[in-house]
Amino acid sequence: MKKLATGSELNEAIQLLETERIIHLEMMNNDFSMAYEQFKPGNLIKNTIKKIGSSPSLYENIFNVGLALIAGFLSNKALSITNSNSKPGKFLGLILQLGVANLVVHGPKVLKSVLESVSSKRKR
């Protein structure tokens, strides 16, 4: 800082510093208000849902899990193992259902390629 020669220069420097202080205080208050708004529970939940909703892989994962559950259920019903009253039959049906569901969830690309090849053979 330069040396001030007169009282008027000193008053001007004080005024300038006061103006800077007011501007910095307003900026700090604005930043605090924005941070406060972002960390409200409602806004945190809303922003999280927006981020999750914008994720394309989420929809694909939900679709794959739903497809797996449906495929497992249908395979179990198609073989009618669970209609028997024996415990080993019901257990085998459950194992089959979980196996098919697991196959669909972990190997959707393989399943899609198999289904495409079967459908292309049917068209011929």
Counted up, domains total 2
Structural class: mainly alpha
What is the H/E string?
A: HHHHH
Helix content: over 70%
The strand count comes to 0
Our count of helices gives 5
- Strand composition percent: under 5%
End-to-end Cα distance: 88 Å
Radius of gyration: 34 Å
What low-confidence regions span 5 or more consecutive residues with pLDDT below 50? none
Mean residue pLDDT: 78
Give an overview in words.
The protein has helices at 7-38, 41-53, 56-79, 87-106, 108-123. With 124 residues, the protein is an all-alpha fold. It folds into 2 domains: 7-47; 56-123, no CATH class. The model has no long low-confidence stretch (mean pLDDT 78).
What descriptors fit this protein?
mainly alpha, single chain, 124 residues, rod-shaped, 5 helices, 2 domains
Give me the secondary-structure topology.
Layout: H1 7-38, H2 41-53, H3 56-79, H4 87-106, H5 108-123
Helix pairs in contact: 3-4
In short:
The protein has helices spanning 7-38, 41-53, 56-79, 87-106, 108-123. It has 124 residues and is an all-alpha fold.
